[in-house]
Amino acid sequence: MGKRKPSFQSRFEGDPSNLTNPNIPPFTGTGPTISNVVAGMNVNCLIDLKTVAMHCRNSLYNPKRFPAVIMRIREPKATGLIFAKGKLQVLGCRSVDDARLAGRKFARILQKTGFAGVKLTNFTVQNMVGNADTKMLIRLEGLQRACALYAKYEPELFPGMVFSLANPKMAMLIFAKGKLVFLGAKRKEDMEEALGKVWPLLLQFRMSDG
């Protein structure tokens, strides 16, 4: 009697890449592209947030609601969160290079406002958000049943599936119309690796064109 073929679920346990098959067609959609980079850094100087809010354009400070100055710049388009103890967080950039440039611009603004001791250090990418489009419809109910260890799908609460990966450690939102959102990546390569691991699964649960 021949050896029984392992079930879909048992082959999937441990890592989605267990399902990778060299005969799987390559990804034919678009992306992934970065839509938001969140980066943290230090300015190595205590900051008087009231002074910053009074003298800097495009800045907002409401300590009862949030303990930081919210400042915006146009080029590159970015939002900076400036904290009194010298922490700076940059949001809204489309690349790591833009996030670095935005951090330097926020630091120069602080220097011109009178904080001569500002020195930018410890730049760290904290999170990346990205998007891709598979250009196909996906049966999320079937995918959830087959990959219950990794997939959470509650359509009455949210229209997308939350699909978690251990390596790279991040998550994806998968929508029935084929759109993908990448969350928690540290590099664009993380998104590409995650897409490569999940793509064979998406093909198996592709809706027929008919």
What report would you give on this structure?
The protein is an alpha+beta fold and 210 residues long. It folds into 2 domains: 39-125, TATA-Binding Protein; 134-205, 2-Layer Sandwich (TATA-Binding Protein). 25% of the residues lie in helices and 33% in strands. It has 5 helices and 10 strands; from the N terminus they run αβαββββαβαββββα. The chain has helices spanning 8-12, 49-55, 96-112, 140-146, 188-204; strands spanning 30-42, 59-60, 68-74, 77-83, 87-93, 121-133, 151-152, 161-166, 169-174, 179-185. The protein has a 10-stranded antiparallel beta sheet. Residues 1-14 have low confidence and may be disordered. This is TATA-box-binding protein. It is found in: Nucleus.
Question: What features would you highlight for this structure?
Answer:
210 residues; alpha+beta; 33% strand; 2 domains; 10-stranded antiparallel sheet; 5 helices; TATA-Binding Protein; disordered N terminus
Distance between the termini: 39 Å
Largest sheet: 10 strands, antiparallel
Q: CATH homologous superfamily of the largest domain?
A: TATA-Binding Protein
Percent of residues in beta strands: 25-35%
Topology:
Elements: H1 8-12, E1 30-42, H2 49-55, E2 59-60, E3 68-74, E4 77-83, E5 87-93, H3 96-112, E6 121-133, H4 140-146, E7 151-152, E8 161-166, E9 169-174, E10 179-185, H5 188-204
Antiparallel strand pairs: 1-5, 1-6, 2-3, 3-4, 4-5, 6-10, 7-8, 8-9, 9-10
